[in-house]
Structures are given as C-alpha cells and as structure tokens.
Amino acid sequence: MTEIDEEESEIICDCTGTTKEKVISLVKQKADLDKISSATGATTGCGSCDVDIVNLIEEHGDSAQSD
C-alpha cells in the first residue's frame, strides 16, 4: 500500500469504522454532512469525527464542483 492509500483508508469515525476514502468519495458525489451521516452513520455516535468530516467537505468539495 502506498502512503496515499494508507491515508485514505484511515478510519476517521471510530464508532462506525467510516474511512476517509469513503467520506471523500461521498463528497465528490456532492454529499453534504447530513448525507454523509445518513450513508455511513458517521457523526451519529460520539461526534468526535464531525470536525474531520467538515474539513474533508471543505477540502474536497471545491474539486467535486469543478468536475
């Protein structure tokens, strides 16, 4: 596995096992926080992943809109 693969397969929601790769994929499909939460269960447990997911939306949302 390359360093990029390892980073994307990083689990960002310990409660549901949601990976960074899954969230980025949903963001590229124009999913917002509510849709990501519904699709993965992330943000519905302890809430510690909320900020990370919002950051991914901000980071990858612009590239999704330009596609």
Could you name the key traits of this structure?
Arc Repressor Mutant, subunit A; mainly alpha; 4 helices; 67 residues; globular
Describe the model:
The protein is mainly α and 67 residues long. It has a single domain (3-66), classed as BFD-like [2Fe-2S]-binding domain (Arc Repressor Mutant, subunit A), CATH 1.10.10. Helix content is 60%, strand content 7%. The chain contains four helices and two strands. It has helices spanning 3-8, 20-28, 33-40, 50-66; strands at 11-13, 18-19. Strands 1-2 form a two-stranded antiparallel ribbon. A hairpin with a 4-residue loop joins strand 1 (11-13) and strand 2. The chain is globular, with a radius of gyration of 11 Å.
The residue fraction in helices comes out at 55-70%
Spatially, the strands of the biggest sheet line up as 1-2
What is the fold-level CATH name, i.e. the topology? Arc Repressor Mutant, subunit A
How far apart are the termini?
27 Å
CATH class: Mainly Alpha
Number of strands: 2
Strand content: 5-15%
Uncertain spans: none
> Total domains, how many?
1
The radius of gyration computed from the alpha-carbon positions, rounded to a whole number of angstroms, is 11 Å
Total count of helical runs of at least 4 residues: 4
Average pLDDT over all residues: 88
N-to-C SSE series? HEEHHH
Q: Which homologous superfamily in CATH is the superfamily?
A: BFD-like [2Fe-2S]-binding domain
> Which structural class do you get from the secondary structure elements?
mainly alpha
* Main pleated sheet: 2 strands, antiparallel
Please state the overall shape, judged from the principal axes of the Cα atoms.
globular
Task: Tell me the CATH architecture.
Answer: Orthogonal Bundle
